[in-house]
Design goal:
By secondary structure, this protein is an alpha/beta fold. The chain folds into 2 domains: 234 residues, 3-Layer(aba) Sandwich (Rossmann fold); 156 residues, Glycogen Phosphorylase B (Rossmann fold), CATH 3.40.50. The strands form 2 sheets. A 6-stranded parallel beta sheet has the order 3-2-1-4-5-6, sandwiched between helices. A 5-stranded parallel beta sheet has the order 9-8-7-10-11, sandwiched between helices. α1 links the parallel β1 and β2. α5 runs parallel beside α9 and α12 crosses α16.
Length: 406
């Protein structure tokens, strides 16, 4: 097969698709990964053919981070031309031979590229977004509605896409030459094929989902056996009991100094050492304490099995890594789907109740202490997750979709 994989977003949106590309390559296929240009070195390091996409949206996001409402409004005027350039890069992919397109819905153009090529299109979803259910509300719905309104809440995904439909419709006609039959992304995913790339042990399929929508497991990169930790990190881990990991990924906050101080005091009250991953803005570098080590980041598959508790934001990538590591979790969600996964982890008994609202040192300390007692449950769940191979399952599904067209 010649699968074309299209994804847009942060590393958390790209790395699972890279894992899928590696799995396809290992199975003897010829995948091409189309993703933001800045990830080309990452793909090259794994021997995956790469097609660069416009990544101006990253620069735009960086330019307004922490700059207030006026800057955000000004930047919003630049979104449509940037989106058009991103879509034009995707239109160019239609000149490549491909047997199937697997796309992240954030790409916005993926299913229409498949339409132009005349090949099957499969949505690769890292979180539930488009297949409605009465069992729970959409993970991105901003409030928790009464149970009878759960199914209606799933319309929010279509609403997120709606402001760009005019741009997409025009691009589809002008760049791809597709005149009639436009359907919005939400309708295409809901009525078409979907690959739900998370563990059924984290979130099983509700009873009202079709068999084709059942989750198949995380798309996980194999552990990097060549990665060597910095000497300071290795020494810190060896000098005492396993520390607490604290990292909020790419989440941001208006007062990183205050959050960092709260985290440090909470860890101290819990009587723990800590590794602080300062990431991209939620935590402020500059912590000074003998029992705290500050890093920017480290591979989760290496670091998390070596800690006692993982404190994080609830992103599905970090959630998955902590599940595989068998480490109990404390979640302080910020936005989007993070509260949803925080609630799931609490329901599964591998995390205390989510730390919603304003965080205090005392609440964090109590949560860390409570989480440590959940270590046996976390190890048991890790054994179940380790038995899954979401990439292999996805490769088989992709092959079936191509075979059914033959």
């Amino acid at each position: 097969m010649r699968p074309l994989l299209i994804t847009v977003g942060s590393r958390g949106d790209v790395q699972p698709f890279l894992a899928l590309a590696r799995g396809l390559l290992a199975a003897g296929h010829q995948p091409v990964l189309a993703a933001p240009r800045r990830f080309e070195p990452l793909a090259a390091g794994h021997g995956v053919e790469f097609a660069p996409l416009n990544d101006e949206m990253f620069a735009l996001q960086d330019s307004v981070k922490g700059q207030g409402v006026r800057a955000a409004i000004t930047a919003a005027r630049s979104v449509r031309p940037i989106l058009r350039r991103l879509l034009d890069d995707q239109a160019a992919l239609a000149a490549r031979p491909a047997d199937v397109v697997v796309y992240h819905p954030k790409s916005l153009g993926g299913p229409y590229v498949a339409e132009k090529l005349g090949v099957p299109a499969l949505a690769g979803l890292l979180i539930p977004l488009y297949v409605p259910t009465s069992a729970f509300p959409s993970p991105i719905f901003p409030i928790r509605p009464p149970g009878p309104l759960n199914r209606a809440s799933w319309r929010v995904a279509a609403a997120v896409e709606a402001p760009y439909r005019g741009t997409i419709r025009t691009w589809r006609r002008e760049a791809l030459g597709l005149q009639d039959g436009f359907l919005p992304m939400a309708e295409l995913v809901k009525t078409g094929s979907v690959l739900h790339a998370w563990s059924p042990h984290l979130l099983p399929a509700p009873a009202d989902w079709p068999d084709s929508a059942r989750p198949i497991g995380f798309w996980t990169m194999p552990a990097d056996d060549t990665w060597t930790p910095p000497e300071q990190l290795a020494r810190f881990l060896d000098q005492g009991e396993p520390p607490v990991y604290v990292g909020f990924g790419s989440s941001t906050t208006g007062d990183p100094e205050s959050l960092t101080a709260t985290v440090l005091e909470g860890v101290r009250l819990a009587g723990r050492r800590a590794v602080l991953a300062t990431g991209w803005g939620a935590l402020r570098p500059g912590a000074v304490a003998d029992d705290v080590l500050e890093i920017r980041e480290a591979p989760h598959d290496w670091l998390l099995p070596r800690v006692a508790v993982a404190v994080h934001h609830g992103g599905v990538g970090t959630t998955a890594a902590a599940l595989r590591a068998g480490v109990p979790q404390v979640v302080r969600p910020f936005l989007g789907d993070q509260p949803f996964w925080a609630a799931r982890l609490h329901h599964l008994g591998v995390a205390p109740a989510p730390l919603r609202g304003r965080l205090s040192a005392a609440r964090l300390a109590t949560a860390i202490q409570n989480a440590a007692e959940l270590a046996p449950a976390a190890r048991t769940l890790a054994e179940h997750v380790a038995a899954e191979d979401g990439v292999a399952a996805a490769v088989a599904c992709i092959a079936d979709s191509v075979g059914s067209r033959a």
